From TrEMBL:
CDD domains with a match to the protein in the record: MMAA-like
Gene, per the UniProt record: meaB_2
Coiled-coil regions listed in the entry: none
NCBIfam families per UniProt: lao, PRK09435.1
Family to which this protein belongs: Belongs to the SIMIBI class G3E GTPase family. ArgK/MeaB subfamily.
Top-rank taxon: Bacteria
Gene3D superfamilies: 1.10.287.130, 1.20.5.170, P-loop containing nucleotide triphosphate hydrolases
Pfam family of the protein (one): MeaB
Source organism of this protein record: Streptomyces glomeratus
Name of this protein: Methylmalonyl Co-A mutase-associated GTPase MeaB
Length: 331
């Protein structure tokens, strides 16, 4: 059933779940006629967006992200918040575009009327998935959700992509001490604003607390004593819903700090500009790979570079020179 722009806008602003779901499907679509309508919709919704707390949640598979988001989201809705859960997982085939996958992953939240759980778009490339998620944030905020949790798989570039679309970045980790700390990628520690050692329950509770203290010390060294914000390291149990209130408090503190220093506005503006250039780069790359002249020229040039007959610099220049030209024999 085709839906017109006004129906989309009104339905989203009224918080109608079926329309919100269709609006997100629209912004995820790569079909040209959908893209045009999606941009019109986003233009209408943009003035109604921007008021939510945007939080990234990351951690390696097995750390307990689903359990955490289910418990954390439930805590937030009990405090009166409306919570949207989005995900960036370009490798995701687990949901196949249906919401069922996440319904079973987040049992309580999926049936909570104050929450909306949306699985990662299965668009394929990270650029495509990130674009759809960024635009879905606009839809969810316009629909009145005031906490947006963006989940990411703890591998590859997805974390950086998510860090670039949220205000605060929460890293979930497991009890590790000493040498095991090396196992946490430094890059992801640099993105983290709050860290929580999960599964601090039963026999693991003491280990988790000790690991949190050790990691906190490492972070103080990393950030220096004059840092405006040193990421706090907490411990929690998603399974038993303990320590989650402190995680929320610290995320709130981080957001208040950003807000009071004017950095939240600056950060979001920078993210918009960053997003623009990311899309320009993705689009250019897409055109490059689809260009007939480039496609016929590239294998020849690659071969000549392999044979040492042509420098990579000259080959790159020729590839770029071929873009958009109908000449195919430029080797
Ligand atoms: N003891 C304990 N186990 C937990 C806790 N949180 C999650 N788990 C368990 O850890 C396993 C992985 O949990 P998931 O929530 O599926 O974690 P995940 O692999 O990061 O999640 P996805 O990537 O979303 O699939 C499950 O067996 C959970 O029951 C916790 O706080 N304590």
């Amino acid at each position: 059933m085709a839906t017109d722009l006004d129906t989309y806008v009104k339905g989203v602003l009224d918080g109608k779940r079926a329309v919100i779901a269709r609006a997100i499907t629209l912004v995820e679509s790569t079909r040209p006629q959908h893209r045009a309508l999606a941009q019109e919709l986003l233009t209408e919704l943009l003035p109604h967006s921007g008021r939510a707390r945007r939080i990234g949640v990351s951690g390696v598979p097995g750390v307990g992200k689903s359990t955490f988001i289910d418990a954390f989201g439930t805590l937030l809705t009990s405090l009166g918040h409306r919570v949207a859960v989005l995900a960036v997982d370009p490798s995701s085939s687990r949901t196949g575009g249906s919401i069922l996958g996440d319904k079973t992953r987040m049992e309580r939240l999926a049936v909570d009327p104050a929450a909306f759980v949306r699985p990662s778009p299965t668009a394929g490339t990270l650029g495509g998935v990130a674009k759809a998620t960024r635009e879905s944030i606009v839809v969810m905020e316009a629909a009145g959700y005031d906490v947006i949790l963006v989940e990411t798989v703890g591998v590859g570039q997805s974390e950086t992509a998510v860090a670039n679309m949220v205000d605060s970045f929460l890293l979930l980790t497991l009890a590790r001490t000493g040498d095991q700390l090396q196992g946490i990628k430094k890059g992801v520690l640099e993105l983290a604003d709050v860290i929580a050692v999960n599964k601090a329950d039963g026999p693991h509770e003491r280990d988790a607390r000790a690991a949190a203290r050790e990691l906190a010390g490492a972070l103080r060294l990393m950030h220096g004593k004059d840092a405006v914000w040193t990421p706090p390291v907490l411990s929690c149990s998603a399974r038993e819903s303990t320590g989650l209130d402190t995680v929320w408090e610290r995320l709130e503190q981080h957001r208040t700090l950003l807000d009071s220093t004017g950095r939240l506005v600056a950060k979001r503006r920078d993210q918009q500009v960053d997003w623009t250039w990311t899309m320009v780069r993705d689009e250019l790359l897409g055109r490059l790979h689809a260009d007939p002249a480039v496609r016929s020229l590239a294998p020849v040039l690659e071969q000549r570079v392999r044979e040492g007959e042509l420098t990579p610099t000259l080959a790159a220049e020729r590839i770029l020179g071929a873009l958009g030209s109908s000449e195919t024999d430029m080797s």
